[in-house]
Amino acid sequence: MQLTPLQSKLFKIYYLSEKAVTLEFGNEINENILQKISHFNSNLNKNPFPGLISTVPAYTTLTIFYDPVIVINNKSLSGLDCFERVSNYLAELELKDHQSESSESSLVSIPVYYGGETGPDLSAVSNHTKLSPEEIINLHSSATYKVYMIGFTPGFAYLGGMPAQLATPRKATPANTISAGSVGIAGVQTGIYPLTSPGGWQIIGQTPLKLFDASRPKPSLIKAGDMVKFDSIGAEEFKHLKNNSDAATSY
Amino acid sequence: MAYLADAVPVSGVMDQLSARIANIVLGNPENAPVIEFTYHGTTLYAETDLLIAFAGEGAILDVEGESLPSNRPLFIPATTTFALRAASGCRSYLAVSGGWNVPEVLGSASTFLTAGFGGIEGRTLQENDLLHSNQNLSPLAINIYNYYKGTKLNYPKWGAFKESFLPKWKKVVRVIPGREFTWFNAESLLAFLAEPFTVNIRSNRMAYQLEGPLIKRSKQQELISTAVAPGTIQVTGDGKLMLLMADCQTTGGYPRIGQVAAADLPICAQLKPGDKIYFEEISRKDAEKLYLQQEKNFIELKASIANKFA
Asked: CB B5 to CB A223 under 8 A?
């Protein structure tokens, strides 16, 4: 029963399934670990092993999915079974990597029409935080957020870095329908609903952009490791961008 | 699995064993689009001649009272009405020569119901839906079609021997201990591996809720959300088990007590509410051997079909 993960300097490796291993970079949510994960992820994708299918970054881990049939049959990988072969490859890749340059992360600007019909809970947030709506909008749109991971539902980004003064608890009773593109606050987190769904976040605005579109070659607008800024726009520009939302994937 | 990082689940068929067999016996690519039925009741009408194959314990195909065998090509002449009758499992698969014709989304023909895309308009099939097959048949598929076509119902006495892929005792599901296995107390771990668990009504393509002895922690700590996979067994705050399936979320924060061996996932796909299962421990090395052996079995099945109809 192999419960002790294999280790290298940067991460511990553990078995998730016949087709996946997970690298553990730490046990805290912080930008340092996010940076390490993004860097290794980028490096691995530039130097894939035969059989690599995809990688999934999360707060403190990077999970690597592969095809065991390719891995076990490939002559360039060493190890008795797939877990060993993939682990050996990853540990070696980490050893060979001397660069400390930061990986490619994009700054994605998300236009948001705050308040009004699209931000029905802005006043509730104002009441809780004792800040005026203008102050809330200023604070929310002046911070730079880091994307820690995409999970929960296609295109949903877990963002870190919201100013603490904006923290507001989730609604006691979730709303039945929150429109796709809604920007919300839940506790110390902020995020965007990529698809229409029920939810309990306090909705302060909406973006006309489509966070997730299955017909795009890159279906998700943002990925783990990216930086995000919210840009306050007016009603007119919101309508205009919404009409062109298929074209407005790069803003 | 290419879009897991965008939180798009693998989705696709729940019982890969049945679906792949149905395609292989027709000479289709293994992952050609199939229709997944949950339980029975559907009636289908052949607008043209059809060469189909049916697999999975969720239903039995019936033509005017005659049960049709599964795991082999079935020639259905035009104007035949056929239907799915009740059986003991949960899901079944209908493959057609060439595969069903659906547009690809994100490189896949699968339907992701939760987000409403893929397959036929991102939804379940409805009455009066008209389905077409792909016209591009492989030479092997053409040979098989020509062999069985005719003016009446026709099918071989042979069928793919599915039993060679599955363990004998189908109510035992083998699991590899999960990363957080040691977060649970000894009594709970013993119960997990000795007592039966019952599939709860709150079960679907995303996850099954399992009821049995409550699984209690020895450590009170929170798991930071991390990637999970179909087959992952999570333990929720109330001590109940969640077995993640094909449409599961790509990341999760509940501690993981085990990972169902990939070779045993087809057993799970056929479970329905009320069914009881037992978990048995297997090492990751043995689980991998089982998986690779099962993949070899598929290659052998394909080779024997190719030989038969070369």
From this structure: yes
The complex's ipTM works out to 0.94
Pairs of residues, one from chain A and one from chain B, whose beta carbons lie less than 8 Å apart: 136
Q: Which residues pair with A56 in a beta bridge?
A: A63
pLDDT in tens, A147-189: 999 988 888 898 989 999 999 988 878 888 899 999 999 888 8
B299 has a chain A CB within 8 A of its CB: no
Shared domain for B209 and B262, answered yes or no, is yes
Residue A140 belongs to what H/E stretch? helix A133-142
**Size of chain B in residues:** 310
**Residues B8 and B85 placed together within one structural domain of the fold:** yes
Rounded CA gap, A15 and A23, in Å? 9
Residues of A in contact with B285 (CB under 8 A): 2, 81
Is residue B307 one of the residues assigned to a domain? no
Q: Which residues of A touch B102 (CB under 8 A)?
A: none
Q: If you write DSSP's letter for every residue of B79-140 in order, what string do you get? A: T-EEEEEE-SSSEEEEEETT-B----BTTB---BTTTTBSTTTTS---TT----B-S---HH
Give contacts of A155 with chain B, Cβ < 8 Å: 6-7
Contact A154, B115 (CB under 8 A): yes
The CA-atom distances, in angstroms, between B191 and each of A19, A46, B212, B254 are 28, 45, 9, 19
pLDDT per residue over B213-231, tens digit each?
999 999 888 888 899 999 9
SS3 A198: strand
Domains of chain A as residue ranges with CATH: 6-96 (3.30.1360.40), 107-243 (2.40.100.10)
Chain B residue with minimum CA distance to A41:
B5
